[in-house]
Known about the structure:
By secondary structure, this protein is of the alpha/beta class. Helices cover 36% and strands 17% of the residues. α3 (102-110) links the parallel β4 (92-97) and β5.
Amino acid sequence: MNIVDLVGNTPLLELSKISLKPGKPRPSGVVLYAKAEFCNPSGSIKDRAAKAMIREGIAEGTLGPGKTIIDATSGNTGIAYSMIGAALGFPVKVFLPANASMERKGIMRQYGAEIVETSPLEGSDGAYLAVREEVEAHPEKYFYPNQYNNDANWKAHYQGTGREIWEQTQGTLTHFICGMGTSGTFMGTSRRLKELNPGVSMIAVQPDSPFHGIEGTKHMASTIKPGFYDEKQADAFLEVNTEEAYQLARRLAREEGIHAGVSSAANVLAALKLAETLSAPAVIVTILCDTGMRYVSDQFWYGNGGGSS
């Protein structure tokens, strides 16, 4: 066994204390669970997709000796590539916005990855366009998983995350809700859960503005859409506000003992908003995408805004 074999099979935590408004309990009989994806070995859910795409590349012969793994990232997939590349002996080069947290950049460099920083004003779209230019100029040098358009991304969640949630809730969940970056988590998990029970409601979470600070989450109407994104997969969409997500991240740490990133907080915030509209019995499942440890320098922890778009 090596570190890559530890990806997946993460625990499902019940969030029993936190509610939408402090001091006001959630509706009775509405249960909220969160998949603790920060328990993956590099600290985020992106380990699942990165592992699947790299393993597929090796199996198909497009990744082998002499090739460098290259892709665009907002941070977490880059860290996952960096960890797996180090474990399997492949160099890694990642393009990401310059305003990504110093913790994420530091982790990638400590794994040995090369980082190319792109314009923060262009966000993840700018990194995506820049990496495509590099690959087109030197295709012989790289293995380019292209996480935004690689079906192995969403299939990792169809085969893993969705199945695990079904088993961990013993098929009792009534709602699955989470945000979208590449949309792989939502697409794959919702497909598997809908096959197992067409009655489970699938709610996609989005920022309420194109200009937001929920790292790793896309405002789909204003961005380059991933190739496998299908808006029809969602039964409903729920928008969340950046500042409210920052507040919820602080509350998660203090009320539940869970130190998670802003995208995780946005997911829990959306789940709590959803809970307020439901009557018992209801079982809501969401995703804790990553650990908050890689954002500790961000000012939002101290109630002073911060974050990046």
